[in-house]
Every structure is written in C-alpha cells, then in structure tokens.
Amino acid sequence: MSTQAEKSIRIFIAGIMQGSFIDKKMHTQDYRTRLKHFLESHYPEADVYDPLANHTQSVEYAPEKGKEVFLFHNYLCREVDVLIAFVPEASMGTAIEMWEAWQNGGKVITISPMKKNWAIRFLSHHLFETLEDFETAIQTGKVTLNPKKSPSFFASEK
Predict the structure, then answer these.
(1) Cα separations (Å) of 157 from 13, 48, 99, 126, 151?
(2) What confidence score (pLDDT) does residue 4 get?
C-alpha cells in the first residue's frame, strides 16, 4: 500500500477465498476485479489493496509462507481506513479482517446476504446484500467511503 501522504484513503478488499472448502481450491474471485475497478473509478485518490493480487497461488504456499501472508494481511486491516468485505457465505479469514479493521477504527462495509450472522451484523457500518446494491449506494451518494478514522472519531469515543 502507498503511504497515507500519497493517497487520501486506504481501502482493503476483503472477501471469501477458501471458505469452507476442504481441498486446496478457492471460490470464484471475480468480485475482486469488479470491486477494484469500481472503487478506483469512483475514488481515484484511493489506494485500493487486493490481498489476492500478489498471492494468486496462496493455497499452494508452504505453511510458513502462508502464515506470514495471512498475518501480514490481518495486520494491514488494522491500518486501513475502509475495509470492503465480500461475504456470500461464511469466511473465517474475512471475519478476522473485519474484526481487525473495526477494532482499530476502520469503516467496515460488507456485501453479504447473511444479515443475521453476528460478525456480519455487528462489525459492519454498512451492509448490502449484493454488489449491485453497494455500487448503487456509492453512485447515489447514500454511502461514502470517507474514512471513519479521524482525531474527532477517537476523541468522541472517550
């Protein structure tokens, strides 16, 4: 990711990868390209990070490398301004990323039909059922990606 001085907003694309698969395979990742293009077209000043972009073969990583990448991405979620989570079904990794962002003052925007799931429900500042609903909310101004992190945000929590 670029430094905060270079970009005005840091966005992390979180989302299901392996989900509940037992074998070494991944869910379709088309949503990542779609989200990245959409976000960059609407927020050209944003630094949009897709954790899969540099790790397309991550399911094949040796345990040490996999752990290093997993922990690094979770650490990044503590530093972002906005986390966009795509969760069409349960994803433990995405839940951890959401927690890290939320716990550290990041805005969490979730795209998921699982509105009753506690992690989804309680960690999301905004929740949309589909990618189309999310895109419409951004296009119409219903939701902005203005970072939740700011001195006034932290001051109001005291």
Answers:
(1) 26, 27, 18, 19, 10
(2) 43
Amino acid letter, 13? I
Q: Which of 117, 118, 123 is nearest to 99 (CA)?
A: 123
- What's the Cα-to-Cα distance from 27 to each of 89, 128, 144, 151, rounded to whole Å? 10, 20, 28, 38
| Residue 9 and residue 46 in contact, taking contact as beta carbons nearer than 8 Å | yes
Angle between helices 92-103 and 63-79 (to 10 degrees): 40
Which regions in the chain score pLDDT beneath 70? 1-7, 16-29, 52, 54-61, 63, 65, 147-158
Separation CA 97–CA 77 (nearest Å): 6
> 70 in helix, strand or coil?
helix
The number of CA neighbours under 13 Å toward the Cβ of 80 is 32
pLDDT at 71: 79
Residues 83, 39 contacting (CB under 8 angstroms): no
* CB-count exposure of residue 52 (10 Å: 0-12, 13-18, 19+): middle
Contact 88/16 with Cβ under 8 angstroms?
Answer: yes
